[in-house]
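Entry 14. Ran structure prediction on the chain below.
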Amino acid sequence: MSQILNVALASYGMSGKVFHAPLIAAHPNLKLAAVLQRSSNTAQERYPEVTIARSFAELIGNPDIDIVVVNTPNTLHYPMARDALRAGKHVIVEKPFTTNINEGRELIELAEQLGLMLTVFHNRRLQSGFCTAQKILHEKRLGKLNTFAMTIDRFRPAPGPKKWKEEPGPGAGLLYDLGSHLLDECLTLFGLPSSVYADLRIERDGAQTCDYFEVRLDYPSHKCLLKASMLAREPAPAYVIHGDKGSYLKPLGDVQESRLAEGTIPQGLNWAAEEPHQWGHIHTDSGREGYPTIAGNYLYFYDNVYCHLLQGDNLLVKPEQALVTVGLLDVLERSSSERACIELA
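Output, structure tokens:
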């Protein structure tokens, strides 16, 4: 394997254009070598050295490709990741890992049998809100933790055009789309909860899948509250942490997605640094003060992949961790349908 690793994207939709392609292109030891586009050449217009593949078989059949990013609709994650592994490629899968736990287990076993890397793009571990909240929890400035809350609010009153997100089926709906992010953050910080409760709803006219959720994860000493809505013109704070000595609120989750969408090149230490007015604040007996945000950096995900393959570093996101998230998504759907709090072993 050469020192420059060739990466292929299985699609060039929003995740490919905004996240994966810019991050891969910005890494000095990775090359965006191929992109699957069935009829368009827009990826090649943006990245002239890219080879356009017209089928997934053509993409994974390219002997020069080292890593395949499966950033396709959720139901395609399992078959495409399986076929890429069988073709001898290392694989990065978009979240959610798979639509059910059995598919995830099969992929993990296959990657182990073939000696190939398998990881999942849980990039919110590398955003400013998560990194800053992690630091605050470590510092214990808020005292004994009582509540850890995260919210992703959007205002999209009409269902979108992506059928795989809006039509009923495995892995469809807001819980799988955004809930997988929030669950991964909580599991990374606190591990598996002792019990869970979920309220999943369809709120918008014409919607057919979950477009609102409230989830409670109970731990022995605190609770995590996770919420997402598509009918919130005025969003709630992205992060709220309450302890017995104070609170932390951060209105903005992160700036990386918006900057990448604007065309910012993700290079240098400050490309994702926030302005002071974007910081959150801490409120204790000492008063209320701004708390400097730790800048996130999604590029570290790809740097970790490179260092894992070339130097043996531990993966930032192990597939076994992503599998726990998939299992928990299923439990939350059951909790909502049964209107019951479910105890976890």
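The first helix runs from residue 14 to 26. Will compare against last week's run tomorrow.
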